[in-house]
Amino acid sequence: MGHRSSFFKENCLPNTCYLRLNRYPPCPTAFGIHGLMPHTDSDFLTILHQDQVGGLQLVKDRKWIAVKPNPDALIINIGDLFQAWSNGVYKSVEHRVMTNPKLERFSMAYFLCPSNDTVIESCREPSIYRKFSFREYRKQVRDDVQKLGSKIGLPRFLTHEGSSNI
Ligand SMILES: O=C(O)CCC(=O)C(=O)O
Ligand SMILES: [Fe+2]
């Protein structure tokens, strides 16, 4: 896509990526409860493993669809940084987890993150996002969650060009 092929190798290092282990207890009392609220991941890519219980859903064509559980497969989710880096060609996927009334669920997510100083810059002109460091992105997300109660994410970094195209 016009980026250096060594970009990930140089910027996403073992100590900048992380693994999250998720446990969702059964939720017998109510139907349609979020185990994890709708969100996009603030990284480049997430490699996800879910067990056989199911509950992961993603937005496709503006509708929530369930991801069929397959413990033998890994799911690769595109994150916000990949969207910015590709100038919006690849979209960060919105996803959520619904709880199961009877079964406990486990998942494992590996987040491919760069170092805080890494500058995320789009490969094409005109760029729809201004360039930003991962540190700046994380701070903006943290500040928005604190002040507004939810993440705004990439729309905060739209350029004039990007704003007039959405
Ligand atoms: O548990 C899952 O399937 C999804 C986990 C997830 O989206 C996350 O940890 O960001
Ligand atoms: Fe996620």
UniProtKB/TrEMBL annotation:
One Pfam assignment: 2OG-FeII_Oxy
PROSITE patterns: FE2OG_OXY
SUPFAM superfamilies for this protein: Clavaminate synthase-like (SSF51197)
InterPro entries for this protein: IPNS-like_FE2OG_OXY, IPNS-like_sf, Iron_ascorbate_oxido_reductase, Oxoglu/Fe-dep_dioxygenase_dom
Coiled-coil stretches noted in the UniProt entry, renumbered to this chain: none
Domain Fe2OG dioxygenase: 13-114
Cross-referenced PANTHER family: 2-OXOGLUTARATE (2OG) AND FE(II)-DEPENDENT OXYGENASE SUPERFAMILY PROTEIN-RELATED
Protein name: Fe2OG dioxygenase domain-containing protein
Organism in which the protein naturally occurs: Vigna angularis var. angularis
